[in-house]
Amino acid sequence: MTYIRNQTGATASDTIRDLWVVYDGECPFCSRFVTLYRLRQRGHAIHLIDARSDHPLVAAVRAHRFDLNAGMVVRWRERFYHGADAMHLLGVLGSDQSAFNRLNQAIFSRPTLARILYPWLVRGRRLTLALLGRKLIDDDFDERESSR
């Protein structure tokens, strides 16, 4: 079992039921997706982490060299899943309690379909951030690092 420090500095165990989702908190689509997606009904403890935060898991994701502008990262059972693989995992683990979840499950539980569609979601995210005048994650991270 591994351990991860949470935002308060307390240590939280990473059990087989813990699911950590690192996403862009400034992207309206990303934020809405993680809010709507229901995994708790299947007994998973969900930890939503804004990729723009100073959370230790964000540092771990960066250390593994995952590009957070190319996709969200899910950590589950001591493994990292990025982009389409993360969406596929969420599609497989998601409940079918809502129409939103059933749609996501139908699309993203198929790995090939997830790999085809996910790059379009990333393009949509980039366009939306540009239209809203928001920066990409790396730009935001670089500015925070230089101000220290």
Q: Roughly how many Å apart are the termini? A: 33 Å
Number of domains: 1
The whole-angstrom Rg is 15 Å
Note the beta-strand portion.
Answer: 15-25%
Overall mean confidence score, pLDDT: 79
Helix content range: 40-55%
Annotated CATH topology: Glutaredoxin
Number of helices: 6
Across the major sheet, the strand order is 4-3-5-6
Provide the CATH architecture: 3-Layer(aba) Sandwich
* Number of distinct beta strands: 6
The best one-word shape is globular
Give the SSE string.
EEEHEHEEHHHH
Can you tell me the CATH class?
A: Alpha Beta
Overview of this protein structure:
With 148 residues, the chain is an alpha+beta fold. The protein has one domain (2-146): Glutaredoxin. 47% of the residues lie in helices and 19% in strands. It has helices at 28-36, 56-63, 84-93, 99-108, 111-132, 137-146; strands at 2-5, 11-14, 18-23, 45-50, 73-76, 79-82. Helix 3 crosses helix 4 and helix 3 (84-93) packs across helix 5. The protein starts with a strand and ends with a helix. 26% of the residues are buried. Mean pLDDT is 79; it is low at 1-12.
